Structure formats: structure tokens, C-alpha cells
Amino acid sequence: MPMDAVEPDTPPPAATDDAPRVINTDDGAKDGLAKCARCGATEISLNVATGNLRCGFCRFEWSTDNAIEAFNLNGDISALAGLLVGSGSSDIVPSTEEILTFKCSACGAEVVIDTNTSTQARCHWCRNTLSMNQQVPNGAVPDMILPFKVEKSTAVEKIAHFVGKRKFFAHPTFRAEFNAENVMGVYLPYMVVDINAHAKLSGQGEHQTRSYTVKVGDSTQQRYDADLYNVAREFDIHVNDLTVESSSDRLDQNTAVNSNNIINTIMPFDVENSVRYDSNYLAGFTSERRDSNLDQLAPLAHTQAEDITRHRVNDTLKFYDRGVRWAAEEVDVRGQRWVSAYLPVWLYSYQQRKSNGKTFLHYVAVNARTGETMGSIPLHQSKLLLVSGIVQLVGTVIGLVLVAVGI
Questions:
Q1: Residue 171 DSSP one-character state
Q2: Pair 238, 7: CB distance under 8 Å
Q3: Which of 12, 145, 383, 395 is placed for a possible disulfide with 342 were both Cys, Cβ 3.0 to 4.6 Å?
Q4: Closest CA to 45 of 292, 295, 283
């Protein structure tokens, strides 16, 4: 994620009001029939090759506005003060209906949309597609969406290659059932965060002055002399486009039941290329609805900002070659901006049923923008132990032979 750190000049004023300021990101959005501007058809979907929306009849293509520019999210982070949120990032209202009914403007029929799984539905009478683009407080409509860029065929190849390199140790049931064609395109919910913070760190650092050996009994030991210094650092830190998962299922990092941390390994996403949300980008894909509020996610974002701060300050500590031990760390968040987003992932999942009756979710994920691939597969433990035993035995035999010949 891009970031910069500068020595402070005049700190921005602290926010005087704890209430968040809201960016209305669905201004002008309309529900119902979204028609092609050229022919009026509603068969609209994403052309992955170009990143544009395409009419299924006349093949006309277009795209929605770049979200970063439309919502002025590329403004100076150092000027951020207080809390700024996109309207699609507002707290979820538990009583909000998840099953919504729309009247088809083409034929007058009532069409039901289940926002748990989609924001589109097809009229069962006239076959036109109805879309929901206006935000409702249930997390179903984000501020922006990053379209798929990697074709399904490419994702299938990457998943097959990933699994193929590991098939020798894979469980035989998994090998028999594996079919990379079962990959699914999923939009996962994230919060994209910009943070303006001021950092103060103080502690002690050691600089080595000499190294020598001393004899202790029949052996020698390496010793070091070092000078001890008091170390302090103070600077502004600007974090740009930090991505935080906003699905409670994805936030669950219990490795006993799932391998959710795999998603983190296919980061980052080029969120600067996100566009204003339009449910037509979801056609042909599935999505997860955001179900976590900002107060649940803010501690995660702030912890990551602290980690970024420690990493950023490392460039100034090269003199202390024996390391620095921080006694006090303070990262004061002065301003932050949150917007909700759908980010694209190709997923191959596999539910493993273990001998104790419990299940474990394995999956292989492909970043649908960069092609970065990572995953987990169920292992054949008996084969793994057998190979490990053979390797250990061979190593022992070689060691004995070397000892016998006096090497």
C-alpha cells in the first residue's frame, strides 16, 4: 500500500466533532431497469477483457465513473481531520429488510431481490433485469466496486497449476474430486481506509563497537561490545488505501476450521481503479454482503497503521546494528476516511470431512486483478509421514557412512 512519512510542520487541527462526515456516494443512483443507452436492452454484464460494461444485444460498451475521482478520495491525506465515511460504509441497521420487492417498470410485475446474495433479479414475466443501486442500511450496496480483470480461463489455469505442484502430498479423495473448472468469481466486501496519523516512539538502541571470542573451559564463545543510546522518533504517517475485510466470516482467523488468512496473501488490490458501484458489474458473479461496522473494524485498521509505522521507521535505524527496543509507542490518528468496496477474487473451495466428523474449509484464491494465487489443500498425512521418515532415515545412513570413512 502506498504511504509516506514526513517530518511534521504544522499539525492539522483535531476534529471538534466526533460524528462522522458522510460522502453521499449513491447520489443519482437509480433502482429498477438499467438500460443500454444505444438499444435499451437490460442484458448488461462485465466484459472482463476490457473492464467495461457490455450490452448483450448490441455489444455497446461503457463504464461508470472512477470512484476515487468521483468521490475526491485522492485528496491530500495530510489534510484529513476527524472521521469521513462513504454513505455505503455507514453502520448496518439490524432491522433493515434483506428481501426487497421492486415493481418492474417494463411490465408492472413485482420482483423480489434477496440482498444477501445479489442486488439483481430477472423479472419472471418480461425477462428484463432489475438492479438495486441505491444504498440501503444493510451493507448490500458498497460505495465502489473493482471490476474483474483476470479471465476465468486464466484463473482455472493458475489454480490447476497451484494444485498440480502439490498433488503428490494431497489427500487421495481430494485428488479424485478436484476439478479446477469449479472455480467461482466472487466479490468480497472490504473497507478501504486512508489514515492521517502522528507517531512518537522512544526507546533504546545498541550500536556494536567490537566483536571477539573468549575461551570458556574447553570451548570458545563469541562476545560483543556495544554502545547504548536513547532513541526517539516523531513524524507524520500517511496511510493510503489500506484494505480491511468487512465480512465477519473472513475476519474469523480460527485456523482450526478454516484457512481465511490465505486471502491476505494475494494482496494488494489496485483499488485506485475502482468505479462507482453499479450492480451490473455483478452479473455472472457472486458476492458477500458486508456485515461488520466501522467500530468493529477500526481497531484492526489502527493496528495495521501501527505496524506500518514501525516498518517505516526502520529506514532511520540502520546505525543501531544491534537493534532498537521501543519502550513507548504512540500513534495518534488525527484523521481517517472509510469507503466500502467490492474487490474481485476467483475461488476454488473444498470442504474436507475429517475422521472425527468435523469439516475444514480449504480453498485456492486468485486475485482477479493481478493473478496472484495462493491456497491450501488437504494433505495425505500417512504419505507425508512416510516420506519424512524415509528422508530422515537416508540422512542418518549418510551420516553414519561419513563417520565410518572418517569424513
A1: -
A2: no
A3: 145
A4: 283
Which grid coordinates belong to 265?
Answer: 496473501
Q: Is the pLDDT of residue 397 over 70?
A: no
- In angstroms, what CA-CA distances link 398 with 59, 386, 393? 68, 18, 9
DSSP, collapsed to helix, strand or coil, labels residue 310 as helix
- How far is Cα 219 from Cα 145, in angstroms, rounded to an integer? 64
Can you give the pTM of this predicted structure?
0.82
Structure letter (DSSP) for residue 162:
H
Closest to 342 measured CA to CA, from 36, 28, 67, 54? 67
Rounded to whole angstroms, the Cα distance separating 286 from 117 reads: 7
Contact 341, 190 (CB under 8 A): yes
Q: What is the mean pLDDT of residues 195-213?
A: 95
Nearest to 275 by CA among 25, 6, 11: 25
Provide the Cα torsion 241, 136, 292, 145; round to 10°: -30
> CA-CA distance, 140 to 328, in Å (whole number)?
41
Instruction: Quickly list DSSP for 46-101.
Output: EETTTTEEEETTT--EE-PPBHHHHTTTTS-GGG--EEEEEGGGSPP-TTS-SEEE
pLDDT (0 to 100) of residue 15: 41
